[in-house]
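Hi F.,

I've been meaning to write this up properly since the lab meeting, where we talked about keeping a consistent format for the predictions we share between groups. The idea is simple: the sequence comes first, exactly as it goes in, then the structure tokens exactly as they come out, then a line or two of notes. No screenshots and no reformatting. I'm using this chain as the first example so we have something concrete to point to.
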Amino acid sequence: MRTSASAPRSQSLILAAAFAAAFLLTALVGVWASYDRSYAWPAFALIALGLLLSTGIIWAGRRWGETALGVMSLAVALLAGAIGVYFLLAYNWSDNAGEIELLQRIGQAVQAYRPAITLPTDINANVAASGLTVTLFLGLGGLVWAFRYRWWIGLVVAGLAWLAGLVALILAQSRGAWISVGVGLVAILYLTLRRRWADHRGLRIVLDLLALATLLAFVAFFVAAVRTPDLASFLGSTAVGTSAINRATLWRDGLALVGDYPFTGSGLRSTMMVYSTYDLLMHVGFILHMHNLFVQIAVEQGIIGLLALVGLLAAAIANLLAATRVARPVWRFSLPAGAALTALISHGLVDAGLYGSSIAFVLFLPVGLALAIDPGGSKEQHGRLDWPLVIAAVAVVAMALVVFLPAGRSAFQANLGTVAQTRAELSRYTWPEWPIQDDLRRSPEIDLGPAIARYQAALATNPSNASASRRLAQVELARGDYAAARAHLETSYAAAPSNRATRQLLAELYAIDGESQRAAEMLSTVDTSLNQLDLRVFWYTHIGEPEKADRLKQLVGQ
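Output, unedited:
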């Protein structure tokens, strides 16, 4: 017979399972949406592996308790060692200048004396550090468990691996990862105090309110930074070659891409060329990810994928908070799990390399270990809400809004159009075979008819759809239908004036129409430091319209 304590525990697992299934489904949709499935399928496999490992960890932890948690945590310590050793063997300190001279010299010494081993691929320092912050915290719980029960062999082997991972984390010189470690330590303090004050409701409420206020402050900062990227200039810029973009600018641009692909995402491992082609308006790839885990997932897996991840993290955190009241030894595993989750989230605010890497499955390990801890001792509350049913109801209402509201139907049609356009163009486009994407749009080698039909259907339902108007204008501009392109871009600008691609393209059309002053005013609001205008001048010269090229040159010179 089911006890009163089992119901809440079952609900937490049901919620986690629902969110995990939704995330996996959006990843599968991301494979469908991707213009290159040879990259998308491996990314999906890593996500599926991570969720499978997380499920296995939860099952083993709930079934065998402390012993399973200890053994699995030691296995994660070994994984930290594997990541660390690989980084130490693969990373090239000579080609990557670090900010701390002493650590740079140590890294170069490691590089000089390490064995010559051919490895499949290099590993980015931020990616390695992100994976290590998670695995080192989780592995720490296993080391404490092995010490407590005097399992010396496991302690020594896993301890050496853990130390190798720690050395790699230090030599990676990732400030974001180091800061996330500090935030993780604060999370340990928070969970410890929450347990100590379990019988002091007032103190516990104050502690929880402080944690909530901190979370809301991060959200408020993100919103402010997206609106005014200069506010986040202290976070630094992400550089590719001689060019750099403020991290907050990447977040803002990423959200603009989410507006183009809200339901499906742009596709797994598709960000680099999608961002360059449809937002930066460049002919080659610029950057792999948006330097924010949550924005990145929303870009590639859509809003539903983002909500699924947030729900999964929330379920894990809620379970940890319940576990702080448990008197049994297993509660101690909640400290490293909580620290790992906090480090993952905090580093994810400024970096998303882990999600797009070959160790992406690490993302789900702290969720698994957090949910594997059986909180026990929970009592069913009278009149409690049945959360799985509530969330299911909200999902049904949201789907109904998409189906029945004109704006929702229009957005869905536009999303299908952007996917059709992306798959048609980027699956065929290669540089320098095609000097610029517009050249491909003019050619008979691709069929943009399905995408155009979707955009027209979206505009028929909602004439002010910004995404459909802008994407349709891009095609019209490439094909020389300048009047129609201008009309659609002005519609898009009226609906979403913050979109950088809309403003750049509209400034270009004003310039070639001879409205130089208006063009200059519009262009003054757009960052074209990546030589986008030179590319457009080339385009008009390439198609034999020198007058338009000259007018655009005048704009470049201003």
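Notes:
Confidence is low (pLDDT under 50) at residues 1-8, 378-384.
The longest strand covers residues 237-240.

If this format works for you, I'll send the rest the same way.

G.
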